[in-house]
């Protein structure tokens, strides 16, 4: 039988309570896929958790030969933890799943079916988000619209990291070594044949979300600065606009002075113009600073993440059988 390799990559940060609930569901799916000729593995990445996540992972790996474990030296954040996991997948497809059960593993066979039809990037698009407040849903909704309008790279709306990448898409992604990683954008940049699968995002099985509004705001900034230089251009247009307004206003003042003389006045206008321009200049400087700071991080050329330990799966590859 023709064997396809699939590695489920899961980044987990303080998910000791979620993993034991998730793993049996994944194992059941992998068993079913195995009957269908798919060699499934699971790769758990411990993103520097402070709770018992690593110990739980080791218990799970001891009980199932298909589980590989990777532990990072500290918490690097989800995007880098995923990168670390995906870097370890050498052959076959990779499927990214959240550790909290919000992306139902039971959908994996649908992703695999699309992959076997020849798609390289099968991504889950959320139809609804249960257990998440209106503020998170509203901000997420706005964010996807803004980034969609600003970015030249296609970034599908309402699409998280729940996706399957074929081997060639994965190898392409592995070549993108930028430090500021906005994964949704990187997936879009890779391209190839893409297809969406609609699904309902479930509430977390345990624990709480690590992404509060502030972290989401920073993620949004990351996305926009990584995939668009529109804010920089905005500074140019703001400058042009205020120069034009200033010119017209200058002409008006001169004409007025010539016609009616020039009694000294205008303290309020002067103050408001100075303050307004000061504000605009600081905003433009801030925008430049955002890009410059990222350039600085990029220039340091540090490794993206550091590995504490790596424990490969104990399954025998079909080629070695
Ligand atoms: N995560 C991670 N490192 C972090 C934060 C989160 O690996 O620094 C993982 C987390 O364990 C989970 C996934 O990223 O598997 C999504 O996190 P979360 O559920 O908190 O985000 P939300 O679903 O609320 O957007
Ligand atoms: Mg979640």
TrEMBL record:
Pfam families with a match to the protein in the record: Glycos_transf_2
Transmembrane ranges, per UniProt, are 234-259, 271-292
- Which keywords fit this entry according to its UniProt record? Glycosyltransferase, Membrane, Transferase, Transmembrane, Transmembrane helix
Glycosyltransferase 2-like domain residues are 7-171
Q: Where in the cell is it found?
A: Membrane
What topology in the membrane does the UniProt record assign? Multi-pass membrane protein
Q: Which InterPro entries match?
A: Glyco_trans_2-like, Glycosyltransferase_2, Nucleotide-diphossugar_trans
This protein's major location comes to: membrane
Q: What is this protein called?
A: Glycosyltransferase family 2 protein
Lineage of the source organism?
Bacteria, Pseudomonadati, Pseudomonadota, Gammaproteobacteria, Lysobacterales
């Amino acid at each position: 039988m023709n064997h396809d390799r699939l590695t489920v990559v899961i980044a987990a940060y303080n998910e000791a309570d979620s993993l034991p609930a998730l793993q049996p569901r994944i194992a059941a799916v992998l068993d079913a896929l195995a009957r269908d000729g798919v060699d499934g593995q699971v790769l758990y990445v411990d993103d520097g958790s402070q709770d018992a996540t690593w110990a739980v992972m080791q218990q799970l790996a001891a009980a199932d030969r298909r589980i590989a474990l990777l532990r990072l030296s500290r918490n690097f954040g989800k995007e880098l933890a995923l990168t670390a996991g995906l870097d370890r997948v050498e052959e076959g497809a990779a499927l990214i799943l959240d550790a909290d059960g919000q992306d139902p593993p039971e959908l994996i066979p649908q992703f695999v079916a699309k992959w076997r039809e020849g798609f390289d990037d099968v991504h889950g698009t959320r139809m609804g988000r249960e257990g998440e407040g209106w503020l998170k849903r509203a901000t997420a909704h706005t964010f996807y619209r803004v980034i969609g309008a600003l970015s030249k790279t296609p970034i599908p709306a309402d699409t998280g990291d729940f996706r399957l990448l074929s081997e060639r898409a994965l190898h392409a992604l592995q070549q993108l070594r930028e430090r500021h990683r906005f994964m949704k954008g990187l997936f879009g940049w890779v391209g190839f044949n893409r297809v969406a699968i609609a699904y309902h995002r479930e509430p977390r099985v345990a624990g709480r979300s690590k992404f509060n509004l502030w972290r989401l705001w920073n993620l949004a900034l990351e996305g926009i600065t990584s995939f668009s230089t529109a804010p920089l251009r905005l500074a140019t247009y703001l400058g042009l606009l205020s120069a034009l307004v200033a010119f017209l206003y200058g002409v008006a003042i001169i004409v007025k002075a010539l016609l009616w003389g020039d009694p000294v006045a205008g303290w309020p206008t002067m103050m408001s113009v100075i303050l307004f321009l000061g504000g605009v200049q600081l905003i433009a400087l801030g925008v430049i600073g955002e890009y410059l700071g990222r350039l600085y991080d990029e220039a340091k050329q540090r490794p993206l993440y550091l590995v504490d330990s790596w424990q490969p799966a104990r399954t025998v590859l079909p080629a070695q059988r």
